Amino acid sequence: MRHSENGSRAGTMDYGMLFGVAAIILMFELVPGASVGRLSTRTVSEEMRGFDPGELYEVPPEMPEEDPVDVESIISSEIPEVVQPDQVISLDPDAQGLDTVATVDPNVLEPGVPEDERIPEPGTFVPHSVHPVCTYRPTPDYPEMARQAGVEGRVTLQVFVSAEGVPLEVVVVQSSGLASMDEAAKESIMRSSWSPAKRDDGVAVGVWTSVIYDFVLD
Questions:
Q1: Cα(117)–Cα(196) distance, rounded to whole angstroms?
Q2: What is the rounded distance in angstroms from the CA atom of residue 194 to the CA atom of residue 133?
Q3: Residue 206's closest CA among 113, 117, 114, 115?
Q4: Would you put residue 202 in left (φ > 0), alpha (ψ -120 to 50) or beta?
């Protein structure tokens, strides 16, 4: 009798367990799929919010754009305009200030000088009918080194003879090849005397004329 009671209890427990498992399976079958999906989506969304980079890093605000710098205008405003000063001459040898100076234009001849007394460029022809005549011309000094070396030469000069017969300027047209010989000829002509050139109306005028010096050993 005791054996049959134990078997009956074991059979009853097996049936109970089967009904329990079946109930659990039925519960999962009856749960809506949308509820599971919402649960899954909600869980993933909460996990992603925990790693939002916007919450970890602050994005700096955009800097305003500045106008481009005009380099040429800055350079032109920084560099002052250079003004070339006028040439000045002192009216008094002991002058120290600007009250005693006058501006001079180098391209304009000094005022007060008559037109006929201004020296034209060498070679400029001045109309005249009577040529100048040299009335006195000292012998030039023969350069000693040229003499000792036995060197001879010729120097061609142009001299400006004023209306008063005075040599005012001289230039070398053809050199002898020796500077000392050229200088000796120039010194000689500047100590010479002249009868000035004249125009048709008899008025004396200053003119350029040519002079030749021959340096010849005895």
A1: 13
A2: 5
A3: 117
A4: left
- Which of 130, 122, 124 lies closest to 195, judged by CA? 130
Cα(191)–Cα(196) distance, integer angstroms:
15
- Give the torsion through C-alpha atoms of 16, 19, 23, 25, to 10 deg: 120
Residue-wise pLDDT for 101-124, tens only, equals 333 333 344 444 455 568 999 988
The token pair that represents 14 in the structure block: 């097996």
pTM over 0.90: no
Please check whether residue 146 is in contact with residue 214, taking contact to mean a CB–CB distance below 8 angstroms: no
> Three-state DSSP class for 84?
coil
Give yes or no for a contact between 176 and 215, defined as CB atoms under 8 angstroms apart.
yes
Beta partners for 112? none
